Description:
Keywords: Membrane, Transmembrane, Transmembrane helix. By secondary structure, the chain is mostly helical.
Amino acid sequence: MGYAIPLEVYEKLEEKLGKEITAIVVRTLEESIKTAFEEAQERQQIVISENLKKELATKYDLALLKKDIDILREEMHKEIDLVRKEMDIVRKEIDLVRKDMKIMEIRIIAILIITMILLNQNSLEFIARILGLMK
Length: 135
């Protein structure tokens, strides 16, 4: 961005200092102003850049977040595997209980039949009829 000294100021300086010295003074002032503007612009860019760095997630922040997500994902998979194993164990235990109950039912039926036979002689004849051994 260029900056030029107003014409009136230039003419007044030229009257007082002369053409050569005025040209040097004006050039020096313009360069000084230009440098000041550039430095101010650079400072502003640095401030904006620093503010953005504070506000926006950096690649490092994103990498850390991804790492945390991966760790959590691994932990969740481990937990899911543990739950599946526990479910398999519970299923096997349920199957064992069912088998035990069937065996218990058979024993109770056998005990009832034996008790019925011992307490009632006619029941033997009744059972034979049910099974089709007697007519």
